[in-house]
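Hi V.,

You were right to ask for the full record rather than a summary. Here it is.
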Amino acid sequence: MSEGAKSLLDALRAVARRDGRYPVDAYRFLFQALDLAQRLAGEQRHVSGPELLEGVRRLAIEQFGSLALMVLRHWNLHRCEDIGTMVFVLTDAGLMSKTEEDSMEDFRGGYSFREAFCPDRLAREVDARALAPAPRLRPTRALGNREGATSQPSS
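Predicted structure:
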C-alpha cells in the first residue's frame, strides 16, 4: 500500500471513529464510487450529487450483486441521504471538496435503495447466458494399466 493510500485510510478511520455512524469500509467504498462517477463523466472533475449516487449504485451492483442492499444496510446506509451525509462529513474533514452549489438537497430522493438494489430485480437483469447450464462433462474411462492401477474392479 502506498504511503498516500495509507494516510488516506488512516484519515478515514479517524473520521469513522469520530463520526460513529458509518464504518471505514463505507467511506472507502464512497471514494471508489467517486472514482467511478468521474470515469463515467469522462474526465477528472467535480461530480454532482446525482452523478455520485449513480456511481454508488453501479459500483454496489458491480461489487456485491444481489447482496448489495444487505452490504449497504450493514454499513448503515439506507437511503441516498446517507451518502450525502457521508460526503459532507468528509468535506468537513477536508477529505472531499464541494462547491457553493452542493447541498444535502442533491441527495434527497435520488432513488430508493430497496428498488435499486432489490435482489429479484438484479437477478432479472443478469445476462441469460450466465444462467445457462454449464456443459455436461462426460465421465472419463479408467486410466488403464498404469503402475499400481488395475483394470479389474476391486472386490
